[in-house]
Amino acid sequence: MPRESGIVVRQGAEADRDWIKGLLRKYWASTNIASRGQLHDASRLPALVAVLKGRRIGLLTYRIAEDECEIVTLNSVSENTGAGTALVQAAEHRASLEGCTRMRLITTNDNTNALHFYQKRGFHIVAVRLKAIERARKLKPEIPVSGLDGIPISDEIELEKSI
Ligand SMILES: CC(C)(COP(=O)(O)OP(=O)(O)OC[C@H]1O[C@@H](n2cnc3c(N)ncnc32)[C@H](O)[C@@H]1OP(=O)(O)O)[C@@H](O)C(=O)NCCC(=O)NCCS
């Protein structure tokens, strides 16, 4: 199958705000995302939007702190067409321009697809925090008990990549 081309990644703008909020609520049950014991309103973070033929097909939100860029959310609404890869590449480029030397992110133990995706793109597992999601549910009760493929969600997995 030929690779889809023509995906453009641009910085999220005010006109994307409602779409961003809707997407975050649809995929993460809320715009609030728990990470390492903190809650972040991802709808207020800088965002990258992947667009194909005028249609928004993916969203990445991120936060930069000192020399690290954390990918807070990443969603493709059109999987396996290159949107996720384009968004991560664009985030790395943006982070590098802003002086970052590292990308990092948190995923959960059920998300084997994300572990596959990120490791194939140069990320390494640097920490596994057992039962961290039980603590995160105190901040965000919407986090489901059962995750992808019916796997119970309990642990945070942190990945990093030098850029
Ligand atoms: C993880 C996720 C972001 C990946 O996004 P995606 O848009 O499917 O990613 P891509 O299309 O760039 O890559 C996925 C696969 O499709 C393949 N692919 C890309 N374009 C393709 C095309 N035109 N034809 C066929 N395959 C293609 C890639 O090779 C890749 O396979 P690989 O990982 O084995 O190399 C997406 O699955 C998702 O939104 N998951 C739910 C949310 C989530 O888990 N987010 C991450 C945690 S924060």
Describe how the helices and strands are arranged:
Layout: E1 8-11, H1 17-28, E2 32-35, E3 38-41, E4 47-52, E5 55-65, E6 68-76, H2 83-97, E7 102-108, H3 112-119, E8 124-129, H4 132-139, E9 156-162
Parallel strand pairs: 6-7
Antiparallel strand pairs: 1-4, 2-3, 4-5, 5-6, 7-9, 8-9
This protein binds coenzyme A (COA).
Residues 1, 3-4, 58, 73-76, 79-85, 105, 107, 111, 113-114, 116-117, 120 line the site of coenzyme A (COA).
> Could you say which overall geometry the principal axes of the C-alpha atoms support?
globular
In the predicted model, the low-confidence regions spanning at least 5 consecutive residues are none
**Sheet with the most strands, sense and barrel status:** 7 strands, mixed
Q: Span from first to last CA?
A: 31 Å
- The CATH class, by name, is Alpha Beta
Spatially, the strands of the biggest sheet line up as 1-4-5-6-7-9-8
**Got a strand count?**
9
Q: What amount of the residues lies in strands? A: 35-45%
Remind me, CATH topology?
Aminopeptidase
Query: What is the average per-residue confidence, as pLDDT, rounded to a whole number?
Result: 94
The domain tally reads: 1
Oligomeric grouping of the chains:
single chain
Q: CATH superfamily name?
A: Gcn5-related N-acetyltransferase (GNAT)
- CATH architecture, by name, is 3-Layer(aba) Sandwich
Q: Which sequence of SSEs, written as H and E, runs from N to C?
A: EHEEEEEHEHEHE
- Which ions and ligands are bound to the chains? coenzyme A
**Helical content class:** 25-40%
